[in-house]
Amino acid sequence: MKVYDDENDFNENIFTVEKSDYELDPDYGWGPCHEGARELAQLYDKNKRIFDCISVFLSFILLFINGIYVVKFFIKFGTLTYSVLCGLCGILTADFLSGVVHWVADTWGSTDLPIIGKNFLRPFREHHIDPTSITRHDFVETNSYNFLVLIPVSVYMLWNFVTKSQEEIRSEYNWSLYLYLLGIFVAYTNQIHKWSHTYFDLPKYVVFLQKYHIVLPQRQHRYHHIAPHETYYCITTGWLNYPLECINFWSTLERLITNITGYVPRSDDMRWAQKGVRKKFKEKLINADTQTKEMTILKNRGDMLVNGRVPIKKQQEDLN
Ligand SMILES: [Zn+2]
Ligand SMILES: [Zn+2]
């Protein structure tokens, strides 16, 4: 019997577990009860919270002031066609950057690294073993990193708007619009990501944006949450996910880096994931050879989890 919804267990690693087992022993599988997820959640401390609040507050103010300048100068010098094109380029760049940052954080480094381990990589590890955790984070915790990135860009824009002549602003207006749209979509990337994991009480405008693929649709993001989390890294609009998969963009980069450095992709991610392969799950893996077909599938999925890259096609075959 399948007891978790797909949000908690995209790979259905525990789909043979009885509901009663889960209720008696919540220390099972993915989600907030996952041993690693609990440990990672506790690493969010008070100092980080204060830092997050300041960065979100500052970003909002800068975004608002720059927004007034962007609208004011659009009325003065804007050309609709160019402006739409520049805006679209800004959104595409934000989507690509979200993919790059997400891929780097998921694939390389360790939570044991000083400073970036706890502050930057922790949420990525937590998200894979407890995908619903993001839906329990408030606006500040969800968006602080991305709003922080926005601050230097916004300061640069504001400085230009205030100090440059009208003629200079006119000649650079499309560049400013590109930066502004890029900034907004970078800032809201994690909020969009959170919406892709939220199945209840989403505002109607968000459902509309997801339905028409203006932002990352829920269905598309589910591909990324199939272990070992090696595809569909773009999480802003997700427009670039399919083209990048078609040219094997991420896997080619990984092979290149592994050949040069010898580092194994996602080894730290696997380490955290294995903290969830606990007593009962391990017992089931050991007995898998002599059990039913379902149990063999369970074992295969356990191997996938431990050994890394397995084609999605293989997982789909298992499900049939
Ligand atoms: Zn990820
Ligand atoms: Zn996600």
The unique ligands bound to this protein are: zinc ion
- Major β-sheet, in short? none
User: What structural class do the secondary elements suggest?
Assistant: mainly alpha
Note the overall shape: globular
The fraction of residues in strands falls at under 5%
User: What is the string of SSEs from the N terminus onward?
Assistant: HHHHHHHHHHHHHHHHHH
Helix content: 55-70%
Count the beta strands.
0
Distance between the termini: 16 Å
Rg, Å, rounded: 22 Å
Q: Could you list the spans in which at least 5 consecutive residues all have pLDDT below 50?
A: 1-28, 288-320
Mean pLDDT: 78
By oligomeric state, this entry counts as single chain
How many DSSP H or I helices? 18
Question: Which secondary structure elements does this structure contain, and how are they paired or packed?
Answer:
Blueprint: H1 19-24, H2 35-41, H3 46-77, H4 80-107, H5 116-129, H6 133-136, H7 139-163, H8 166-171, H9 173-187, H10 189-196, H11 204-211, H12 218-224, H13 241-246, H14 249-261, H15 267-274, H16 279-286, H17 293-307, H18 312-319
Bound molecules: zinc ion (2 copies).
Q: Care to describe what's here?
A:
The chain has 320 residues and is mostly helical. The relative contact order is 0.14. Helix 3 (46-77) crosses helix 7. 68% of the residues lie in helices and 0% in strands. Residues 1-28 and 288-320 have low confidence and may be disordered. Bound molecules: zinc ion (2 copies).
